[in-house]
Each structure stands twice: as C-alpha cells, then as structure tokens.
Amino acid sequence: MAKRILIVVLALGLAGTAAWAYKEHRDKQAVLLNAENTYQRAFHDLTYKMDLLHDEIGNTLAMNSQKSLSPALAEVWRLTSEAHADVGQLPLSLLPFNKTEEFLVNIGNFSYRTAVRDLDKEPLTDKEYASLKKLYAQSRDIQDELRDVQKNVLQNNLRWMDVELALATGKEAKDNTIIDGFKTVERTVKGYDNADLNSPSFANFQNRDDNYKHLQGRMVSKKEAIETAKNYAGIKNTRSAEAKPNEKGAHFSFYSVSLKDKDGHEITADITRKGGYPIWFFTSARSADKTLA
User: Residue-wise over 160-170: b if at least 16 C-beta within 10 A, else e?
Assistant: First the structure.
C-alpha cells in the first residue's frame, strides 16, 4: 500500500515538474518571440524610413521657397528622428554603428534648423544646397545597402535573435548576412567623412553626446518618461501612451515615447533615462501642414 502511495506521489511530482518545465519553456519562447518581433519591426521600419527619407530629400532639392521648402524639411526632420529611434531598438550594442547614427542626426539637425528659419529672407546658400545634394546621394547608398539586407532577411527567414547571440558571444559567423550588411552600411557612411557637414546649420554630434554624459538627476521610469512627454506636449489625457528603452550600446540611454491625444494626434519624443530630459519632440500636424514643435 505504502509502495503504491509512493509511486502515485512520485508520478504526481514528475507530472508537476514536467508541467512547470513546459510553462517555463513556453514563457521563455514567448519572450524571445516578442523580442524577435520588436527587432524585425524596427529593422523593416528603418529600411522603409530610409526609402522615404531619400525621396523627401530629393523633393527639397526642387524647392527653395518658404511655403514649399519648410514643410518638406520638417518631414525630413521627422523621418530622420524616427529612423534614429528605430536604430536604437536594434541589438547593435556590440556592432559599431555610430557613424550611421551620426549621419542621421546631422541630417535631422540640418533640416530642423533650416525649416524654422525664414527661407524667403534667408534662402539656402550655395554651400547648403551642395551639402543637401551630397546628403541625397549618400542616403541613396544607405537605402540600397539596407534594401539588400532586407531582401536577404525576407528570402532566408533570418532572425535578429541569432544576431544578438552572435554579437553577445563574440562568435560572429562569417556568413551572418545581417551583421555583414550593417557593417557594409557603416563602412559606406564612413566614406562620407569628407562631406561638408560643418556648416553652421549642422549641429555637432560629438559635442551633443559629450553634453549628455554630464546629465544630472536620477534614472527615471517609463511612466515618468511618459508624464514628461505629456507635460512637454501640454496634454493631460491620452488615448494611448508607450515608452520603449533604447538598446544597450548607444552613447546614452533614452526612452522613445509615443503618445496619441484624445483627438488622435500623434506625439513622439525621446526622453533621457537619466534626469528625464527631452532630447527631441515631434507632434503631428493639426492641419494639412507639417508642424514643428
């Protein structure tokens, strides 16, 4: 009798252990799947944004009036900001990609500073126009490289989790298409070092990062970052609110915050994790025109 009871207890224990192990495995797979989906979304969004960015820079080359050029440059600024946020969501912490980030930030700063000035009184200079033409050509090269990576990702069902594992373990396979593709993008951007990005319209990326190293204050939570963005936007109630931390390896840590107010207008912002300072802020237009905040 005792032997039978012992067998039953052991069987129940084994069944419980198996059920627990299965649940742990299922939960782990769910986490990995969610991470993979996040990486895939960020990558394909980045590729799409580079397509749009190249087209929009091309549009600005055909314009040179306040009425037409300012909205076009506002759109360039929005796209570069979103593309930069997409890069921050990718597991590139151990893969040098700072030149590409610098390129995006420089385009964004140039387009913002130019869009907010009176272009009827102070139109683009010949030097700025030449720089814009260079940026157009350079964005095309990045666009083409990212398209090649995207094509291989889709055709071969490549996983970003494999990239993260390869980078984390230092065992980068020679035929890792994603890693090789992003290294090619970075090498392409490094070839732009001689491009004239030193005009007053371009903010200095390195100085900006140096300033962020000296931020004061404590580390803020996602909820606090959302509240900061809401206060900055001047809204109290939202339809939706989300804050995502950037991937490790960036020059500084920040949250990418997305809000939608009660009227459906979208607000996006980057908030530093240390101190909770807004880095950049964008609100969708409340009319047919683009609006810079």
Answer: beebbebbeee
